[in-house]
């Protein structure tokens, strides 16, 4: 959290997306991870020490609404930001645990499908998919086609989220 405070003091940041903002050594509540000058949108997993947060600067002209999706994938948060004219930005932060089970991975793939069908003119997805074996510059992986990382790449391609 201290690093984020330093960054917001040094740079003009309109949007900040964070995975695992919850401290691992002590319980954290929403007020202790809010940032001055930002509207916070936080999804904390009460049963673990992680969550997702999106901070939108109060200094930018924006209208933000939280997006409800028909998904059982819990570790994500989605915002719709009204831009100029009829433009809309769908902004999402997603966390996938490195120990994610098959069912959770399938839910993530389904979430990506929903996002690709959402009515927005722009989409930005950030977070941590925890696939260190993916080489994003080449859209390849060292794993076989049956592995989760390759299925994740295929899901991103199939939904045109690249």
Automatic annotation (TrEMBL):
One of its GO terms (cellular component) is extracellular matrix. It holds the Pfam family Exo_endo_phos_2. One of its GO terms (biological process) is larval heart development. It comes from the Eukaryota. GO terms for molecular function: catalytic activity. InterPro entries: Endo/exonu/phosph_ase_sf, Endo/exonuclease/phosphatase. Residues 92-162 form the Endonuclease/exonuclease/phosphatase domain. PANTHER family: REVERSE TRANSCRIPTASE DOMAIN-CONTAINING PROTEIN (PTHR33395:SF22), TRANSCRIPTASE, PUTATIVE-RELATED-RELATED (PTHR33395). This is Endonuclease/exonuclease/phosphatase domain-containing protein. The lineage of its organism: Eukaryota, Metazoa, Spiralia, Lophotrochozoa, Annelida.
């Amino acid at each position: 959290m201290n690093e984020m405070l330093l960054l917001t003091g040094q740079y003009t940041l309109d949007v900040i997306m964070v995975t695992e903002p919850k401290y691992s050594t002590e319980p954290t509540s929403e007020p202790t991870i809010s940032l001055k000058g930002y509207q916070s949108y936080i999804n904390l997993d009460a049963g673990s020490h992680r969550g997702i947060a999106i901070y939108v600067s109060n200094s930018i002209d924006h209208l933000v609404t939280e997006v409800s999706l028909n998904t059982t994938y819990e570790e994500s948060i989605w915002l719709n930001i009204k831009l100029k004219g009829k433009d809309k930005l769908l902004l999402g932060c997603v966390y996938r645990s490195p120990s994610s089970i098959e069912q959770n991975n399938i839910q993530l793939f389904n979430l990506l499908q929903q996002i690709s069908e959402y009515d927005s003119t722009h989409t930005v997805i950030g977070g941590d998919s925890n696939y260190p074996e993916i080489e994003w510059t080449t859209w390849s992986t060292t794993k076989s086609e049956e592995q989760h990382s390759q299925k994740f790449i295929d899901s991103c391609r199939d939904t045109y989220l690249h």
